[in-house]
């Protein structure tokens, strides 16, 4: 019996890289059927709203969603639809793994880091944003709860244990942000005591960024709050070749959304040159979540071989292949 998942093709390059990924999922007989819904600028054009009720209903009904990139304006306009989805479905855990692939132009080799980011609280959640009438003063509110901190920290340690990882680093700014970061760090120390089999250490966020550049191999699992996690996970992506090589999973108790973490790249939309790897890796995360490890492993093996060989890879990977060429190379190996 096939399982239906929700698919949001997204904006810009989203449709092309999502469609490429669906062909790959079909090739490995993943046992999936797709319900396509809209969000973002496409939804605004078709339905007059950024996040239609039909989309929300489909996500809730099917529980698992594969999503392409959505446009978020910088500095003005509507707020992030991604943030809205995380809040709506209480997707409290954001998993951003990065792993080195032979054949990329990355600066490092043998990187394998998992960033576990709290996804609904903190400064990045968008709470309490105000601009004074005269436009001279802006405010935003950061809220950390013990329950939210405990949930993400337990998730990080449980994930580390399940995946056979050895070390969890809690990243904070408790030396300055003594209330919010302080509560997160205190909770991390408490939770760590229940996992004596996993090494625990703590690191201030600015030092973490420096250490990631100088010696990234010291990190295994990083767990942190929302804004810090957003920044650190992008930094980690830079270690392995950029956001095109990094997937993201948003996990809640009853719902999960798997996505490309890069932007919609409207400047290259429709040119058939985008690298679909981020969405393909997100689909691999999704298959593992759905307890389909065999299909996930097959796709990862084929993708790894294509990138290592340089066969029809896209220009960001040093080649001249199109999105279609790249996808075909993966399909042939499957």
Automatic annotation (TrEMBL):
<protein>
    <submittedName>
        <fullName>Isocitrate dehydrogenase</fullName>
    </submittedName>
</protein>
<dbReference type="InterPro" id="IPR019818">
    <property type="entry name" value="IsoCit/isopropylmalate_DH_CS"/>
</dbReference>
<keyword id="KW-0560">Oxidoreductase</keyword>
<dbReference type="Pfam" id="PF00180">
    <property type="entry name" value="Iso_dh"/>
</dbReference>
<dbReference type="InterPro" id="IPR024084">
    <property type="entry name" value="IsoPropMal-DH-like_dom"/>
</dbReference>
<feature type="domain" description="Isopropylmalate dehydrogenase-like">
    <location>
        <begin position="4"/>
        <end position="330"/>
    </location>
</feature>
<comment type="similarity">
    <text>Belongs to the isocitrate and isopropylmalate dehydrogenases family.</text>
</comment>
């Amino acid at each position: 019996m096939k399982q239906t998942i929700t698919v949001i093709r997204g904006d810009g390059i989203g449709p092309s890289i999502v469609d490429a990924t669906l062909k790959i999922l079909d090739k490995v007989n993943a046992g999936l059927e797709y319900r396509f819904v809209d969000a973002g600028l496409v939804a605004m054009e078709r339905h007059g709203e950024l996040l239609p009720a039909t989309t929300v209903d489909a996500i809730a009904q099917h529980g698992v969603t594969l999503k392409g990139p959505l446009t978020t304006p910088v500095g003005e306009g509507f707020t992030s639809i991604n943030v809205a989805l995380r809040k709506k479905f209480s997707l409290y855990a954001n998993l951003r793994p990065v792993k080195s692939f032979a054949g990329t132009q990355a600066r490092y080799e043998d990187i394998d880091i998992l960033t576990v980011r709290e996804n609904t609280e903190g400064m990045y959640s968008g709470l309490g944003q105000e601009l004074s009438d005269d436009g001279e003063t802006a405010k935003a509110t950061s809220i950390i709860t013990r329950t939210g901190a405990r949930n993400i920290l337990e998730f990080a340690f449980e994930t580390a244990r399940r995946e056979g990882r050895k070390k969890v680093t809690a990243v904070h700014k408790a030396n300055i942000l003594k209330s919010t970061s302080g509560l997160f760090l205190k909770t991390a120390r408490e939770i760590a005591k229940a996992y004596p089999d996993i090494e625990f250490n703590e690191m201030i966020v600015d030092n973490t960024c420096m250490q990631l550049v100088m010696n990234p191999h010291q990190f295994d699992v990083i767990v942190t709050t929302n804004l810090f996690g957003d920044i650190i996970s992008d930094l980690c992506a830079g270690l392995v070749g950029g956001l095109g090589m990094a997937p993201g999973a948003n996990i809640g108790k009853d719902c999960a959304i798997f996505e490309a973490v890069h932007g919609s790249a409207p400047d290259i939309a429709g040119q058939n040159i985008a690298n679909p790897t981020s969405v393909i890796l997100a689909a691999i995360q999704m298959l593992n979540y759905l307890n389909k490890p065999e299909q996930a492993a097959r796709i990862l093996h084929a993708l790894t071989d294509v990138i290592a060989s340089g066969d029809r890879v896209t220009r960001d990977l040093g080649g001249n292949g199109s999105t279609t060429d790249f996808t075909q190379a993966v399909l042939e190996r499957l």
